[in-house]
Amino acid sequence: MPSNSEPARDTAPRDAVPSTELPAVPPLPAPPPVRPAVRPAPALLDRDHSILAFNRRVLNWAERPEVPLLERLRYLCIVSSNLDEFFEVRAAPHLQAAAAGELTGNYTTGSFERLADAAHALVERQYALYNDELLPAFAREGIQVISHGRRDAAQRKWVQEYFEREVRPLLVPVGLDPAHPFPQVANKTLNFIVRLAGKDAFGRENPIAILKVPRVLPRLIRMPARVSGGKTLVVALSSIVRAHLHSMFPGREVGEFSQFRVTRHSDLAVDEEDVKNLRTALRQGLQHRHYGQAVRLEVSSSCAESLASFLLAQFNLPPQALYRVHGPVNLARFAQLVDLADEPRFKELHFPPYVPSYPLHLSPGQSFFDRLQRGDVMIHQPFESFDGVLDFLREAVSDPDVLAIRQTIYRTGADSELMDLLREAVRRGKEVMVVLELKARFDEEANINWAEALESIGAQVVYGVVGLKTHAKMLLVTRREGRRLVRYGHLSTGNYNPRTARLYTDISHLTADPLLTADMEAVFVHLAGLSRLPKMNRMWVAPFHLHRQLVERIDAVADAAAAGQDARIVAKMNALTDEALIAALLRAGRRGVRIDLIVRGACMLPAQVPGVSENIRVRSIIGRFLEHSRVFYFRTGEDEDLYLSSADWMNRNMMRRVELAWPVTDPVLRQRLIDECLVAYLHDGRDAWELGADGVYRRVDGDTHPGEEGASRAIEAHGAQQALMDRYASRGRTREALRD
């Protein structure tokens, strides 16, 4: 990718970077483009299996001995959380096909069985790692999850006191009989099934009881120092309940028992065409989400076959939906151990703390409006801090010349300084409009609460467009400057969530470009008034023309390759599952375009298949931070274009969401994004996985391209994310340092 000279509108010098960091080198050298004979279109890779493959790559971080121990546990818990969401969202159609015993849409009984086999293998790998490696390693460090059998007398006494004081008052066992049917068991809650001997208080035999454990109780409890003997001893809530099950059934003998957890289909569906108030309908729907169709049952490995069969029948699940686990039924909740082991002596068990740099071309206290008149600003999160975005909004709220603030919100969290700033803007008399997406999966309740809080003080809140999710990320400020109204904007590949901004890689783009901000205003007017979207100056907007523009751009690069020009596509995204875009990429590759795809998660495109996709390479980067930025690069001859976007290349993003893609026209900023978001990741030799022709991802083994003189050995050895962390940390541009 060729470098470009500095533009006149941004006079800030471009930083000189040593070649051992992030050199501005061409992307991965490829062999001369191959023009294979035309073959039938290949079968696409399975989306659900690709999602499971992504989670196997995440689990690899938990398996690496060089990763700090508590961080290994965190990755293990991330996989468990991801699997929960996978079952909640993706499993129901497979189960329905299995129950029907025939083809149901794209699903069959065979597809369900293959998916179940893959999921079982991944879960078994998780628990083997947990039991065989992580728990012994924690014990060596003085951290123990101590079971009932290993507790001494003092510890058992403390556990009993805790149970009597904190747990027993919240437990109500249910003995099953005709008057006490099987209770409603909520999604992902901890429960026990118990077989009882003897007769109840009325002289009847009711051998099965269910004990539900409330969600409000912490799943891990740290023992006090007076009974821990100086160690960090942690006891699981399931172990506490298990040790005292007998006391919950006085006069009965507790026989076989098991903890269990059921996962339910939780993709909230509301018929938007048939409701009068979407917010009210969603709030009502949230009450039923916890009791959707059961899709997975987890029990202890020692659970008796009779009890497991009884539970499967109650939840109407086939045997393949049963997961016997050697440990807690909810590993995701064991992430609490990372917070419980918070002493300084355990600091080596965490990643070294990373303090993001204050954005390179900003300074605390300077006027954003003055700075943006000199040129656009890019913020590469989390290497640079989200504080730059918050400071921009903070200045807009406090500036008396700012008349209006408009913003889209998809995910921002339950506790958000950004939302507080918007409320303050209303109190200061500014016109505030928020397009708040109520249907952001698993964030619906937080967004409903924010909608009510904003509306209660007079903000204009709209919920997007019926039938679509508003996934676009933009903030527009309108300011009076003399006799003119001037617009300033922020566009982002990620959400307005300060917490995830420290964990996800994303690009924030601050601009005063009148064409780009005019497009932003047009989109806001469209979302609020449902008016026809005018012709855009620079933006591509889904569901109107983003998909078509991408296909046309890919085809244009293919035409250039066929005409003998140098042609290149590099695209970074989170998922690639849209069949039309995949077909366009395959066409382009067959016509000689060299294509590199950096796809974090699910990818259905079969890469490197002889005669089909030799010119297409797919790699996935799994690192300390979650890769989230979307960057699309197209080159024909000497002409290059780079777009940032809120959209992945998925059908839902192209057809069922409001999404944006916009060009970066400043050559210096464009080259910076090429270097940091594309080149660095194409040379990553530590955290990268490449997709083979057989559909299997294999980890890159360090020296990715030994024959390339200009490649950065630091990136190959340490990974792109670490190289970027080193680059920005070396500048010493923390907010505190700049203020000093």
In short:
The chain is of the alpha/beta class and about 750 residues long. The strands form four sheets. Strands 14, 18, 19, 20, 21, 23, 24, 25, 26 and 27 form a ten-stranded mixed β-sheet that branches. Strands 10, 11, 12, 13, 15, 16, 17 and 22 form an eight-stranded mixed β-sheet that branches. A six-stranded mixed β-sheet has the order 2-4-3-7-8-9, with helices on both faces.
Explain the overall architecture:
It is built from 22 helices and 27 strands. It is α/β, with parallel strands linked by helices. Strands 14, 18, 19, 20, 21, 23, 24, 25, 26 and 27 form a ten-stranded mixed beta sheet that branches. α13 links the parallel β11 (402-409) and β12 (431-436). Residues 1-31, 270-276 and 703-711 have low confidence and may be disordered.
CATH homologous superfamily grouping of the largest domain: Polyphosphate kinase middle domain
Distance between the termini: 39 Å
Helical content stands at 25-40%
Number of helices: 22
- Describe the main β-sheet briefly: 10 strands, mixed
Instruction: Provide the gyration radius in Å.
Output: 28 Å
Low-confidence stretches: 1-31, 270-276, 703-711
- In round numbers, the mean pLDDT is 87
Percentage of residues in DSSP E strands: 15-25%
- Number of DSSP strand runs: 27
**Globular, elongated, flat, extended or rod-shaped: what is the shape?**
globular
CATH topology of the largest domain: polyphosphate kinase like
CATH architecture of the largest domain: 2-Layer Sandwich
Any idea how many domains? 3
